[in-house]
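User: I'm preparing a small set of examples for a lab meeting where we compare how different chains pack in three dimensions. I only have the primary sequence for this one, and I'd like the structure in token form so I can line it up with the others. Please keep the answer compact; I'll paste it straight into my notes.
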Amino acid sequence: MKIIGAAFLVVVSASLFSGCSSAVGCDFREVKDGLNNGPEPRCQERTGLQATTFGPSCAALSAKVVDDGCPRDGIVFGCEVSGGGGDVVDWYYAPKTRADAEIECGNEKILEAP
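Assistant: Understood. Below is the structure token output for the 114-residue chain.
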């Protein structure tokens, strides 16, 4: 079991430090089919270890996988998702407005557009 754990650490470390992206975005503005509720003005971004397994999950939701995180152009606000260890942010785009932040984020931390 120690060998498997060590091998996992080597693979994750190698992917993080070998030029592989340390952030992955899942852009729901470009949902390809009806598996979701349709397109929505949101992109979920995961960094660090959260990013290493997020791409396939995003693709399974028919959203667009974005290497290097969510596109920054047009972001209105973000919500830091709890339980994600600070490594998960939902970024919102127009037609959402800053006034929508409290509704969308609820008790989550509201982030300003980068």
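A couple of notes for your slides: Residues 22-112 form one domain. Strands lie at 23-27, 42-47, 64-67, 75-80, 88-93, 109-112.

User: Perfect, thanks.
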